[in-house]
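Reminder: ligand-aware prediction takes two inputs, not one.
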Amino acid sequence: MCALRYSSSWPTKAYVNGQWYDAKSGKTFDVINPATGKAIATVPDLDASDVQVAINAANDAFKTWKKTTAKERSDLLRNWYNILVDNKEYLAEIVTAEAGKPLAESLGEVAYGNSFVEWFSEEARRNYGEYVPSPIKSKEILMIRQPLGPVGLITPWNFPIAMITRKASAALAAGCTCVIKPAENTPIMALVLAKFAEDAGIPKGVINVVTASRANTPQVGQLLCESPDIYGISFTGSTEVGKLLYKQCSSTVKRIGLELGGNAPFIVFEGADVDKAVAGAMASKFRNCGQTCVSANRFIIQNKIFPEFVTKLQSAMEKLVIGNGKDSGVNMGPLINMSQVEKVDRIVNDAKSKGATIVMGGNRAQTFGERFYEPTLITDVKENMACYVEEIFGPVAVCIGFDTEEEGLKIANSTNRGLAGYFYSNDLSQVWRVTKALEVGMVGVNEGIISSTEAAFGGVKESGLGREGSSHGMEEYTEIKYVCFGNIQQE
Ligand code: SIN
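Here is what comes back for the chain with succinic acid:
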């Protein structure tokens, strides 16, 4: 199929059963460009009664979608992928406009997001079952995988494309239909993805996008979690909201995948290559202005190399160019909204008031706009400071010293979160020991950027349940059915 190149204006209605859909109430809400604080679009503010229409559509569509062959689903996903690739610059501009990322980073996210569609177009055909040798001669044992049914996908604003494609393409590949509830900050991308899916030939009702304001989001989430017509939920977002959705899913004993908050340790051991560690630290900490769940949250540095690391990190941070992500040369954009700005400010002020040293930054960067924050470097951090215990989700690097490997690991694991962890070491035995001892779902060894379609993304402890991407990603959307063939007359 020849992909089209789009330059027309963005869709600004919800997408339900293959139709562009207004809220029954007629209500709308504004989408704000975080760099300028100005509205860039207005979209419908759906409530539970509208979302029920989308759930019904996903159920109707499931009746036929589940009967498509894996090859047919694979081909449709491939068509979708081709269109997405053909429109990558257009998509990147949307990421920058809605989420504030520098354009180069938005292009990176688009490539990452598209890669999930490509991957699951391939994985669709490998949804294998199992034949297991039976202990009884007259019986044969088989296990097949079947789609869960219509699923609810609740996605965050920090990766407007990748978090949708990581979920939706796995769900579709498995034979599920979906209702996508994008974050209220970044609904345009979800609508554009639905438009491109329609152009790719994905039938009506298979993908539905329900847009809702912050005020309506709780009732939409609750309906998706409690509806007996939704068979699975996948959520990426905060641990607090994840716990609430987990509870709501219990009423229907619904499958739930949760990719929640992190508090990633980033350990640098003496003997490590400090320059490489600083490069990894910059990539991990300042990607999307620190607003990623896998962002390094605590730099835990062996005391012998602490001064060298801090000096080098500061000089790398001084090179960051703050501004509107659409402007050339900018490599650090704004925070997404005022509540993020207030949170980062609260965490930094708490550290200041409790005696931390602010080596660099420490203030809002209001000359650029009200959502900008200075790259901030903090030392002399204590356990009672918010920056030690909370996920910062902002451009604030917190450095903590330690003497022994045991002490470094104790600090690293002293949290109820366990998404990603990083460490730099050139000692092979230490590499194995620390890899095994870190209480996280993903480890970067001498590497600050670990996300990859091919790898299983997910956490332990209060950072989540289940894995996305990789050959495990489709498991979230399938049920194993055991089939026992009895009374078989063997020769
Ligand atoms: C996230 O921050 O939630 C996802 C980050 C990633 O996939 O790299």
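The two ends are 51 Å apart (CA to CA). The chain is about 35% helix and 20% strand. We will return to this case in the review session.
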